Amino acid sequence: MKALVYEGVESLAFRDVPMASGRAGEYLIRIQASGICGSDMHAYLGHDNRRPAPLILGHEAAGVIEDGPQAGRRITINPLVTCGSCAACTAGRENLCSSRQIISMPPREGAFAQFVAIPESNLVNVPDEVPLEKAALAEPLAVSWHAARLALEALQPEMERSALVIGGGAIGLAAALALRAMGIEDVSIQEPNDARRAFLADCCNQQVVPEFQGMVPLVVDAVGYAATRAAASVAAAPGGVIAHVGLGEDAGGLDIRRMTLQEITFIGTYTYTAQDFRDTAQAIFDGRLGPLDWPEQRPLSEGAAAFRDLRSGAVAAPKIILDPWA
Questions:
Q1: At what angle do helices 138-154 and 170-181 cross, to 10 degrees?
Q2: pLDDT under 70 in the chain at which residues?
Q3: Which ranges constitute the DSSP H helices of 60-137?
Q4: Domain 141-268 classified CATH 3.40.50.720?
Q5: Model-level pTM?
Q6: What confidence score (pLDDT) does residue 207 get?
């Protein structure tokens, strides 16, 4: 099969690799759409030691079951493979499973390939009328759905319902969409890139600013750099909530003194629960997250160029989706 293989820092090759094969209870999926995630970019830049080269990246994917009695079944993939029996899993917090695995991280190859293997429990059916390119957005949207849900659960009921999302990439845009789907009408996105800011305003109907002034009860940091954590510390209102979902860099930025004196809640959020993933997929199918027509689509064979364009800031769209068969 063909795959886009991460071979070293800022080096990707589209080439032949051995056919994907699954363990017992796993299905072979013919990938039709696979999105580029920020974590793929971190690996590409050599910033993620959990993803050593050579490796097939990619974990935002949808396709069809390739063989067996369910061949042709249209699905989107929850890439988080968990044990199902530990305390975290049985409590419905599968994302905290101590033995969790995710495709695109050893020992599991990723979905920038024509095929990938995954347990049946990780598959969510996609209605015939929903394009698989849209269904592939379930994974990044679920990350933000999870963050928005946790933030709203932590927010005091008497506080004003308004929010700031820092970062206008796919996770930031998805956070704004999730917050609105959950009843928060006043949501601003802070995005410094001029082209992306214009795209979010013109093509995604978002309220977007280069720099936010003032304070809001709820802040989502969808970037995760010291500078964005510092901005979140300033923007969170007394008694408010910061949901931190970005993984840009490990340390710095938080104003711990202000957060302590103003009783600001900080929540680290990672991936999603299985229920969050299913809820997000259903919200996509129901149209509650909007038309979701903003990704840019390219062939997987041009994946290396797509990564270079993202690296240089030349891509206005919040998401690039790759097609292994184009």
A1: 50
A2: none
A3: 87-90, 132-135
A4: yes
A5: 0.94
A6: 96
